[in-house]
Structure formats: structure tokens, C-alpha cells
Sequence to fold (149 residues):
Amino acid sequence: MPYFICPNCQTRSFDEDGREGLSHQSIGCHQCGFGFLFQLLEDYFPHAGAGFVVCDAESRILAAGQGVFEVSGRLEPSLIGQELRTGLHLTFAGDDDPIALTLDWGVRQLEKPATLVHAAGIEKQVICDCFPAYDQDGGLLVAISPVTT
Ligand SMILES: [Zn+2]
Fold:
């Protein structure tokens, strides 16, 4: 059973019969009206304060959800079209590149520590969960959550 999550408001849903279409792009969010839902292989519960970013197969940002401004201080219009790591000033810890792993191998990468530079210039520790897209265009969804201490 495919699971879906709204990149904007993070409402989770599942598709009992696939009636609304095979591509995630054909189903909008019933909760907030966002244009499409992101399909997940397994259910996922976002961390508190998470912001979702949807990227294409070259990790360029296609959409940024509600929580992204809070995490990064950046609004969606300033992020669209930018490479994810560049646009959000996101640096993963060590040699880990979960974005490339997700895109290349099509497997989710969870709990990846990273540093993000907030628009106000403050460095923040965040945790990233990365999910591959299952449509033919590829791409991924990244959930960026602040590390709570
Ligand atoms: Zn929504």
C-alpha cells in the first residue's frame, strides 16, 4: 500500500485503491490544497519542527513546505531552482552524502546529521531524512529537522 505525505503541511495519507492516480503528482493535498503529494514506500512520522523540501533528480529545489522557513529562515521563492545544499547552506557531517545515496540507490537515508546556516547567519544542527521519489522523473524529498537539546 503506497503511503503519501504532503510536502507542505506534512499530512500523511495512504491510497487504498489507487483510484486517484498512479503518479503522486496527480493527487493534491486534501488538508492544505498543496498541488501534489509525495509517495513513500513506508509510512514516516516527521520529527517535531521539520521542514520538507522536494528536489528534482539533480537535487534542485522544486518546493519547500511550511516548516522550512522556521528551520532555515528562507522563504520558498528564494529557494526554488537552487541546489539543495547550496540553497540551504547545508553541509552533511563527515563524508556522508545522503542526497547522492538517495538519488543513486533509491533508498531512504534517515537521521543524517548536518549543519545548516540560517538566513540570519546562525549555524544550526539539523537532522535530515531523505526519501527517493518513485516516479520516472526521480528526485527526492528531504525532511530537515532542528536538533532539539
Ligand atoms: Zn498539505
